[in-house]
């Protein structure tokens, strides 16, 4: 008969798992229903042995206590030195323990978000798996992204709600105010130094979003200095061009 796995054996087994294997172990929908974990592995692997704060918006489980905090546990095992925080509209304190701590509150409330930062420090990684309502997604991003340190990573899950009116989205693919509308603005902002609008004033995200990675229903935004300079004065207008290179 198979013997029961000891705590030490379990620790040794899980410490060798990649993120997809951990998602399967803890039964989080970041793998299976979705295919997020390979993308997270690619963007977050370099942090695996770092001490930092990770904040996940949305703890899950709803009224089913046994299903709460599955992804928080996954993150705890993937990042053995990180402080793992969760924010949920419901009380999820039964998940708390060790390096995991949860907060209760509305993800669109700046006071709630600021309290987390004040008590635990600015997160290096944010995972927005909350309400998926575009207005809430945008509010959380607007408050938290400026607080991330350089090289911070902000992830928005389930962006498909941008296209679903019952979730606050729009049928019009070019509609303003959705989560994907925010993402498209960030992509344009990567090239803000090339704009020819005379009175354009770069936004905070224009200057501090270094890259935007878009996947099926998942967006990963990397923070960093995006003020590289431009050669537009030399090459943007044919009448002013003095060099054939671009």
Automatic annotation (TrEMBL):
GO biological process terms held by the UniProt record: methylation
Superkingdom as given in the UniProt entry: Bacteria
GO molecular function, a single term: methyltransferase activity
Region annotated Disordered, chain positions: 227-246
Keywords, ordered alphabetically: Methyltransferase, Transferase
Protein name: Methyltransferase
């Amino acid at each position: 008969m198979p013997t029961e796995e000891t705590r030490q054996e379990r620790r040794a087994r899980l410490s060798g798992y990649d993120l997809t294997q951990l998602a399967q172990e803890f039964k989080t929908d970041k793998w299976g229903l979705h295919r997020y974990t390979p993308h997270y592995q690619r963007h977050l692997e370099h942090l695996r042995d770092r001490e930092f704060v990770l904040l996940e918006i949305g703890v899950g489980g709803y009224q089913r206590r046994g299903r709460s905090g599955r992804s928080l546990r996954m993150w705890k095992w993937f990042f053995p030195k990180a402080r793992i925080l969760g924010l949920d509209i419901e009380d999820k304190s039964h998940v708390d323990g060790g390096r995991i701590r949860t907060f209760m509150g509305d993800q669109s409330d700046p006071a709630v978000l600021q309290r987390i930062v004040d008590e635990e420090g600015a997160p290096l990684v944010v995972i927005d798996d909350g309400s998926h309502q575009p207005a809430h997604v945008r509010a959380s991003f607007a408050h938290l992204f400026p607080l991330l340190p350089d090289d911070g990573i902000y992830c928005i899950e389930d962006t498909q709600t941008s296209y679903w009116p019952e979730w606050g989205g729009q049928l019009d693919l070019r509609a303003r105010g959705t989560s994907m509308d925010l993402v498209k603005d960030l992509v344009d902002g990567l090239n803000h130094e090339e704009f020819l609008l005379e009175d354009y004033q770069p936004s905070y995200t224009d200057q501090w979003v270094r890259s935007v990675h878009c996947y099926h229903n998942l967006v990963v935004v990397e923070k960093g200095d995006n003020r590289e300079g431009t050669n537009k004065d030399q090459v943007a207008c044919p009448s002013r061009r003095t060099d054939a290179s671009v």
